[in-house]
Structures are given as structure tokens and as C-alpha cells.
Design brief:
single chain, mainly alpha, 3 domains, 60% helix
Amino acid sequence: MSEEQEQENDRITYLFNQGLTHAEIATCLAITDNVHISVRHLKRRLARLQLYRRRNLTDPEVVFNYIADQLRGPGRLHGYRMMTERCRAAGLRVTRNLVYAVQSVLDPEDFSVFCVRMTMAQFMDLVSFKEEEELDTVVRMWNTHRIRPSGNGRDLYHGKPFLMYHAPELYQARDYLHPVDYERLDIILEEDICLWKTDITCDSDLYELCVLTMEEHNLEPGHNAIEVTRLYRQLRPLIRAQLSETD
């Protein structure tokens, strides 16, 4: 197999895992990769790659353990449809029926009242802990879900955000992306002028000031949403007072 064919197979696998239909995959290949193949030929290639929607499903025990783990975190806020998308975003091949069955067994009480119960503490858990990892997961789920046609009479775009972004031509929209000059990127890397992602999710000086203030006033770090909120309310006036003194 040539390197070009391997790249095409990798691209087809990637698009398949985004949940696109056969027609959408073929269209995306033509527009973004200049690879023109028919839907019939695409199906044959998917079969050779053993990529099927309803075959080679993930072992139910693996799905069970994954959903159980998600229900201990932000995943407990999801119904079975969103949990299905979450499983697929994690690389699991599942059906909605399986997710429905597993979720109703694992959490029957919460599952039955999901649509009417979501406490403030649960919401704050979502944004307070592992927020970057969780938001990345939400982004992947959003990009691969399908926006349905509006039923209010307004002619709004509908489809998968992933496809709408990469192939705006399908929606008679204009592509505003500009190609990146890789030489300029190399200069940025060489001169080390990037602000690299770290475990500190705010300005480093502000973080250091908060740590020093906590030590000075014997404030303990929070371990849940309520404690984190309390710590924020204690720190905010102290930090503002210190900043006003330096003006």
C-alpha cells in the first residue's frame, strides 16, 4: 500500500469516526482532500478497513464500565442520547439501545427524572473540576452531533457542525479560513513567544498571589464545588484590596 493510500485510509477512518454518513464522507473527501470517490466505492473501502456502524461493536462490559465511570462525574447530567454521543466521542462503537439499557440499570432513579433534576452543585462540578478535559469532550460531542431542521418556519442551517465547518460550500456559505504560514509558526516557536498551556488555568502572577494570600489567611483549597465557591468568595475581596493598595 502506498503512502498516499494510507493517508486516504486514515482520513476515511477519521471522518467515519466523526459519525458522518457515507454521502457526507464522500463529499468531505472531495471538497477538503480533493479525493473523488463514489459512495459505492467508499463502502467497499470501509469494509476493507472493517468500519461498520452495526458490526464490530464494543464489548458490552467495556461500555458498562465506561458509563459507570461517567455517571460518577459530569456524565450523570446526560440522558441516553447524549451519553451515546459521549461514548462515541471516546472511541466506543455503541448503539443507543445498549446505552439506554446500561444507563437505566446503573442509575434507574436519576435516569427516570433526568430531564427535571439538575442541581446547582452538579452544574458547578462540571465547570470546577477537570474543566479543560471536560470542555474538550463537550466540544467533540457538539461537533459530531446533528443539528435538526428548525420547526418554527425559519430557514436555518442544519447538519453536523463538523461538516458545516469543513465544507461550508455545501451550505452556500463562505469559507473565511486563511492558510497558515508555517515559516511564521517556526519563527514563533524558535523565539519562544508562545504562551504554552500549563496546569495553571489563569495568569501565573495572579495564581501566585492567590496562593500567598491563602497561606497568609490560613485558607484551605476546596475539594468540591461548594468549597471552591466559598474559597472564591473569601479570596476575591482580599485580592481586590491588595491590588487597590498597589494603585
